[in-house]
Amino acid sequence: MTVDRSRADRSSLLRSRLSLLVGAALVGLLVAAAAGAPLLSRVVGYGPFDQVVPRDVAPPTPPDRDHPLGTDALGRDLLSRLLYGARISLLVGVLAELIALGLGTAVGAVAGYAGGRLDAFLMRATDLVFAFPTPLLALAIIAAIPEPESAPILRRLPFPSVGVVFLVLGFIGWAGIARLVRAEFLRIRGREFAQAARAAGAGGARVVLRHLLPNAARPLLVAGTLGVGGNILMEAWLSFLGVGARPPLPSWGTMITEGQELFLARPWVCIAPGLAILLAVLGFNLLGDGVGDLLDARREPA
């Protein structure tokens, strides 16, 4: 029985490490593509907005030596647009999740530590957010801002249409984080180290910041990693519907929209951005699962 359990633990640990390695490789590839987009585009020889197809040729053109992924319906190089699209996806995914983590951690920490009526009020607020489907709520809010370029705050951003996406996703994504943090605080606030800190005269803020939050970091790290992948998928979906990143920005969702009418005749226009979305989301999900398994305090050594 002990041998079987030891084998099961080793097998589970191997799967966790494999998930972590594959996820880290995919996320690293995405980060490298986003960070190196300007340099890689110079190597390719074309920018994301350059119309490179000769006037006597009808785009889109299939993959060839000069354009490894082909060109789109407007004659622009798909590889260059895919690289710059990685920047938009990563920007939205990370910034939206940072906003959600900040708001959700603050709300969950206050609710879990204070308890009582304040806890009940904050949890009813999270229930109100959960009452609306997140995709439809995000779609409704973003669609209500038809011209982000003219909005007082958004117009100061380099790409206002991208800014409104990560702001909305961040401000509606905090509820799940808040519940997670509250649950962790309720589980650990009665432990010896927290009671000892209060007995030593530490204030509530010090107990939360120095003792409770560090012990709740593991689930937050996992939730944040998974949340980035979800935000990338949401941004692509919103851009596909025409309310996310506005053309000519090379969002992967917009690239699929621009090529959907040509999918049967010229599938490469949609396959490249669709595969990029798949690999990016898969990478963050695998990374989050692997990190969660390896940091699980309840795991017994093999």
Question: How would you describe this structure in keywords?
Answer:
302 residues; MetI-like fold; 0% strand; mainly alpha
How would you characterize the overall build of this protein?
This protein is mainly alpha-helical. The protein has a single domain, classed as Orthogonal Bundle (MetI-like fold). Helices cover 70% and strands 0% of the residues. The protein has twelve helices and no strands. The protein has helices at 2-35, 37-44, 78-114, 116-130, 134-143, 160-172, 174-188, 192-199, 204-215, 217-241, 252-259, 268-294. Helix 3 (78-114) packs parallel to helix 12 (268-294). The longest helix has 37 residues, at 78-114. 40% of the residues are buried. The mean pLDDT is 85.
What's the domain count?
Answer: 1
Number of helices: 12
Largest sheet: none
| Apparent shape | globular
Strand content: under 5%
CATH architecture: Orthogonal Bundle
The CATH class label is: Mainly Alpha
CATH H-level name... which superfamily? MetI-like
**Unreliable residue stretches:** none
Rg (CA only): 23 Å
Head-to-tail CA distance between termini: 14 Å
Order of helices and strands: HHHHHHHHHHHH
Overall pLDDT score: 85
Which bin fits the share of residues in helices?
Answer: over 70%
CATH fold category name: MetI-like fold
Number of strands: 0
| Secondary-structure content class | mainly alpha
Summarize the structure.
With 302 residues, this protein is an all-alpha fold.
